[in-house]
């Protein structure tokens, strides 16, 4: 086992020992690193465990052996079969069956399709995007939370506050979807829910806490006004359990800035993921909802685990063999697309007035690592990824030398293709 791989495996074993990840997560990460399932199981079994304090046994009467009850097959495969319906006005969260809320859920696959279907029954054409009658949907899909590569994503669906009122017509209120990666979606799924419906408006700032099929609303008055990093840290400290992931808004969302984002996995400055389009943060802020914190340890039912694992392995091998997902994105990050898109004449230069930029190469991923002649290396990089993704396209970047004329955070993720062309 090469040194880097060995170091990473030791880190995973330590996280398993500390309870920061489950055995299932350990096996998933280990196989993504290239280990066989058998080797991963052996490493999980030999992970160091704290020695428990011996407790003398207490004699108890031996009850009669009950007749075993047959365990029915799961009603859903890939799905958890539950939707969390949150009425902020009433201050309650109700667990509902997926097939009762959306009987035809299979027709919409999941994610965006499921979210739009749920929203359709809750709002109308005249619904104010920033009014309590609007709904905000957080939706996953049947592959979310499994080991399928690049499946660690969720989307939000609502009516957008973007646009402007015109004489006789208001352009606001178009249905939108915005997507994000990271770990939050995976944890939500393992917490027992395929989707969350947020309705109404809380009387004061609150956040939603979800854990293994249960949910409650908590006071967020002390969090109102805080940024996303500070909010994430404060919620984790308050709850005090490992494995918590948070999706939240900052002051922009609270003040109903119409381009405000919903940020998830902001575990430290410079890191995180975002639902960045169409003002979802403003919709969340209009409801006095500061954050949704999730923690989950439930298993996702898989119909044929052996065949499923084989297909996953096959897809991972295909991704790693390709020039873009196997070499370009892991080496240069999403900024490698700068040259690719520019070469195809599709770079949205000057707000899509032109499809190409003459000096695009100087801002490419290749330029950042010093591979473009005449452009000095400006950033040092490390690799990162969203959960269950073998591509590792995330860049952790830092300045090669101090810049006293700028305020810096040391290191952080990016820059990404979309932030560059924007």
User: Number of helical runs?
Assistant: 14
Q: What is the domain tally?
A: 3
What oligomeric state best describes the polypeptide chains here?
single chain
Assign a percent range to the helix content: 25-40%
The count of β-strands is 17
CATH topology of the largest domain: Aldehyde Ferredoxin Oxidoreductase,  A, domain 1
Mean pLDDT over all positions: 86
Computed over alpha carbons, the radius of gyration is: 23 Å
CATH-assigned homologous superfamily of the largest domain: Aldehyde ferredoxin oxidoreductase, N-terminal domain
* CATH class division of the largest domain: Alpha Beta
Structural class, from helix and strand content? alpha+beta
Q: Spans with pLDDT under 50 lasting ≥5 residues? A: none
Order of adjacent strands in the largest pleated sheet: 2-1-8-3-4-7
Report the portion of residues in β strands: 15-25%
End-to-end separation in angstroms reads 42 Å
- Main sheet attributes: strand count, strand direction, barrel closure: 6 strands, mixed
CATH architectural designation of the largest domain: 4-Layer Sandwich
What characteristic shape results from the CA principal axes? globular
């Amino acid at each position: 086992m090469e040194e880097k791989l060995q170091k990473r495996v030791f880190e995973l074993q330590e996280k398993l020992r500390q309870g920061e990840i489950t055995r299932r997560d350990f096996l998933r990460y280990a196989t993504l690193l290239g280990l066989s399932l058998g080797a991963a199981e052996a490493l999980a079994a030999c992970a160091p465990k704290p020695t428990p304090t011996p407790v003398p046994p207490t004699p108890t009467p031996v009850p009669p052996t009950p007749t075993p009850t047959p365990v029915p097959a799961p009603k859903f495969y890939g799905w958890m079969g539950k939707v969390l319906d949150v009425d902020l006005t009433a201050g309650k969260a109700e667990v509902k069956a997926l097939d009762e809320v959306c009987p035809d859920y299979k027709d919409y696959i999941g994610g965006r399709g499921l979210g739009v279907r749920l929203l359709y029954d809750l709002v109308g054409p005249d619904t104010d995007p920033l009014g309590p009658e609007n709904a905000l949907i957080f939706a996953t899909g049947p592959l979310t939370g499994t080991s399928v590569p690049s499946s660690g994503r969720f989307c939000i669906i609502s009516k957008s506050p973007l646009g402007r009122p015109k004489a006789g017509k208001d352009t606001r209120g178009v249905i939108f979807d915005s997507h994000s990666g990271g770990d939050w979606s995976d944890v939500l799924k393992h917490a027992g829910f395929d989707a969350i419906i947020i309705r109404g408006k809380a009387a004061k700032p609150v956040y939603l806490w979800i854990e293994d099929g249960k949910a409650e609303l908590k006071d967020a008055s002390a969090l109102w006004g805080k940024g996303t990093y500070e909010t994430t840290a404060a919620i984790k400290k308050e709850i005090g359990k490992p494995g918590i992931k948070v999706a939240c808004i900052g002051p922009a969302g609270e003040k109903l800035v119409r381009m405000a984002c919903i940020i998830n996995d902001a575990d430290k400055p410079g890191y995180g993921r975002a639902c960045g389009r169409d003002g979802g943060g403003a919709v969340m802020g209009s409801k006095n909802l500061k954050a949704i914190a999730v923690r989950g340890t439930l298993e996702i039912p898989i119909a044929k685990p052996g065949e499923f694992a084989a297909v996953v392995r096959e897809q991972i091998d295909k991704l790693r063999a390709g020039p873009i997902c196997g070499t370009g994105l892991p080496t240069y990050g999403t900024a490698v697309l700068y040259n690719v898109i520019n070469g195809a004449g599709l770079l949205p230069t000057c707000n899509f007035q032109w499809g190409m930029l003459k000096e695009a190469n100087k801002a490419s991923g290749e330029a950042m690592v010093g591979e473009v002649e005449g452009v000095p290396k400006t950033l040092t990089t490390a690799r990162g990824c969203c959960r269950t993704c073998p591509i590792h396209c995330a860049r952790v970047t830092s300045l090669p030398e101090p810049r006293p004329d700028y305020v810096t955070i040391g290191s952080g993720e990016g820059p990404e293709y979309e932030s560059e062309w924007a």
